Amino acid sequence: MVAFPQAHILDIVGPLEVLTGTKYFLPEGPEPYAVTLVASKTGPLPTTSGLSLTAHRAFADAATDTSPIDTLIVSGGHGTMAAIKDPELLDFVRQSASRSRRIVSICTGAMILAEIGLLDGKRASTHWWWCPILEQRYPAVAVDRDAIFVRDGNIWTSAGVTAGMDLALALVEMDFGHDIALQVARYNVMYMMRPGGQSQFSAHLVAQRADDPAINATLDYILANPGDPLTVTALAARAGLSERTFARRFKDNTEMTPAAYVETARVQAARVALETTTIGVEQVALQTGFQNAERMRRAFQRHLGVSATDYRERFRGSQLTPLIRDGPD
């Protein structure tokens, strides 16, 4: 794990907790992941939280090691813009990448990979706020503004903060299989294993954008009542606006059409029901406004790339049965 002053602490410890926690679900044997935190110097490393981490090795020392690296991870955070001007850091990442099986960036760590040309001609993701900056500074990079994480060849990039944990789960799944990854997710009390192609923007996050009181109230209503008839006509009447004015102001505030937002909110509500209840798929579809299971299946395919039935099997698949050795605290 490559870090730098004012890195986001969760960009570092979040993925590492996921990776190292895999040991609780594997039989006795070597640690599944041996972690080394590398920075400009050993010792305390200040992070954006005000807490310090301890770097195991300095770039100068670690660069003399020519042994293969399984996974090179580059963290992100507010210190990124200074980090991309640090020749020692850039040289270390460049040299280490050449001997790594796979290369990973968390959040704005994508800027560092882009700075040394590793993302040229590749798809990549980063925190939504930084996507326009990545696009502007590095036009050779195909920036995916929505994705939670992206894999292009042996290079993986993630969106911000907790998306790094989603990416780490995908690495665990690649290395040890789906069942182990799912158990690691549950052990970490993660909401679910999110597919990489899932949008960074949930319906609740979109709702937080709205400044218009009428639109804001409409968004709250949609989230609370996904099973209602949520046509433009009905929503415009509730907002006290003409349909044309409502549709225009809605898109101005959310960058989505009313129909697209309603579907997003319904998929979100259906996902929660599928994960947390045992009611049938058809009943979930009725409760969340899809009218029937086929419509819900098509919506899930558009948003998540899986059917509602497959989604339930994926996220409710196995029980948490850790093979604890020393045991977590």
Task: Using the alpha-carbon principal axes, give the shape.
Answer: globular
Question: How large is the share of residues in beta strands?
Answer: 5-15%
Q: Identify the CATH homologous superfamily of the largest domain.
A: Class I glutamine amidotransferase (GATase) domain
Low-confidence stretches: 317-329
What's the CATH architecture of the largest domain? 3-Layer(aba) Sandwich
Strand order of the largest sheet: 5-6-10-9
Mean pLDDT value: 89
Please give a handful of descriptors for the protein shown:
Rossmann fold, 10 strands, alpha/beta, GlxA family transcriptional regulator, 329 residues, transcription, HTH_AraC
How would you describe this protein?
With 329 residues, this protein is of the alpha/beta class. The chain is 46% helix and 11% strand. The strands form four sheets. It has a four-stranded mixed beta sheet, sandwiched between helices. A hairpin with a 5-residue loop joins strand 2 (43-46) and strand 3 (52-55). Helix 1 packs parallel to helix 7, helix 7 (163-176) runs antiparallel to helix 8 (178-187) and helix 13 (258-276) crosses helix 16 (308-315). It is globular.
Give the topology, please.
Elements: H1 9-20, E1 38-39, E2 43-46, E3 52-55, E4 57-58, H2 59-62, E5 69-74, H3 80-83, H4 87-97, E6 100-105, H5 109-115, E7 123-124, H6 131-137, E8 142-143, E9 149-152, E10 155-158, H7 163-176, H8 178-187, H9 203-207, H10 213-224, H11 232-239, H12 243-254, H13 258-276, H14 281-287, H15 293-304, H16 308-315
Parallel strand pairs: 1-4, 5-6, 6-10, 7-8
Antiparallel strand pairs: 2-3, 9-10
Helix pairs in contact: 1-7, 7-8, 11-12, 13-15, 13-16
